[in-house]
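Input (structure):
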């Protein structure tokens, strides 16, 4: 079982990034997926969530209108499109897949927003 995030990096304020989370080793299409983020010294924060079918999404108030979560079950991948990035978006972004008591996490990808 593995979740591998990618797409992070250094970006200027106002810029965009697209994160990817690729799953393997389990039936990905059956799992709801969430993106979390954690900045140094802060608690982990739920950023966005998508249901297993992709028919339902939810966002933290702090990212609504700027971030979009989507998934391609044929590719076992969830994406997080991040636009209009702000310095406060700087964090390690982690992917989480969950179904009943099955709960898998990736290692995260670092996003740094700075001029």
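Output (sequence):
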């Amino acid at each position: 079982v593995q979740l591998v995030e990618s797409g992070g990096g250094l970006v200027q304020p106002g810029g965009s990034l697209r994160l990817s989370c690729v799953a393997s080793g389990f039936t990905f299409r059956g799992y709801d997926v969430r993106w979390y983020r954690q900045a140094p010294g802060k608690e982990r924060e739920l950023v966005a969530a998508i249901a297993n079918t992709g028919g339902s999404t939810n966002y933290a108030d702090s990212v609504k209108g700027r971030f979009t979560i989507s998934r391609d079950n044929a590719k076992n991948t969830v994406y997080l499109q991040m636009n209009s990035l702000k310095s406060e978006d700087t964090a390690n972004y982690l992917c989480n897949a969950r179904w009943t008591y099955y709960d898998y996490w990736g290692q995260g990808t670092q996003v740094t927003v700075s001029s």
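Notes: The mean pLDDT is 96. The CA atoms of residues 69 and 80 lie 5 Å apart.
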